[in-house]
Amino acid sequence: MSSDWPLWEVFVRSKGGLAHRHVGSVHAPDAELALAHARDTYTRRMEGVSLWVVPSAEIVASDPDQAGELFEPAESKIYRHPTFYDIPDEVKHI
Amino acid sequence: MASAAQVGAPDSVRAEYLLRLGDDALVLGQRLGEWCGHGPVLEVDISLANLALDLIGQSTLLLGEAGDADKLAFHRDVLDFRNCLLVEQPNGDFAQTIARHLLYTTWHHMLLQLLTQSSDRFLGEFAHKAVKEVAYHRDLASEWTIRLGDGTEESRRRMADGVDWCWRFIPELFEVDKALQAAIDCGIAPDPRDFEAGYRSAIARVFSEAHLEQPAEQRPILGGRSGHHSEHLGHLLAVMQFLPRTYPDATW
Fold first, then answer.
1. I need a labelling partner for B120 at 20 to 30 A (CA). Which of A63, A75, B137, B145 fits?
2. pTM of the prediction?
């Protein structure tokens, strides 16, 4: 039965102000029950204050075969990291 | 029992009421727990286990207030249980479990809403906590009733059969016997007759969305509140009580 059901990706916001984070997926016949299954599966231990579910089929993913052209060029450009600056001691939380 | 003294409810009246609520939660929780590992799909298995755990938690509070929760749960005989007959009915298939849950939790939720106003402090605070859990139970049971009733020909037939099995146990939920009347008179318990019409129309709304017919009225079956149970409860207790009764000194 669950193999007939579409897959949904689950995102949980752990507390107000933080972004929703991907935590896993559930099978469900429709959006409302996907939320119920997400609630029952992923927020049993007070993990969250808000839930998103998204049909997995709606996620557009990059092609692993293209990883070379997509991501490798960034490896040689360490100057894009802001690590060449001296940060004054008074500046916190960076 | 400080809160009983506070409102002047005799201990026996209060204890009896605690047992009724506590046994409902215990027996329904045990029933739902029987699904663990047998749910139709993994997600539903977890849902049912969550519902069961909510109810076991509620019964622990209620029976703990009535006395020693473990003794009451595991060392009491079937004739001393005070739950309604609906909650002890067998799981049947998933649709029958959902039918039982819808019919019980719709009632349970309405009761808890009124119980938040109880003159008994423990019961009022208990209801505040439990009413949120049970609101989810009612919503989930309604959603499944609608999907099964409005699903395939087979799911619809199974849902209708499940409702048909449980229907005759509804009148007991609204029965006011002497013991309940005493609890109502002390202000610790709501009168279920106050929300019977609201209950009937809430169920009718779910059925209409599920395209389910209401079953014809059947001869009501009463007696759970005074210990006259169906054979099903004995089997449930045999499984639930076997270990603590065989090994009374067993600990974790």
1. B137
2. 0.89
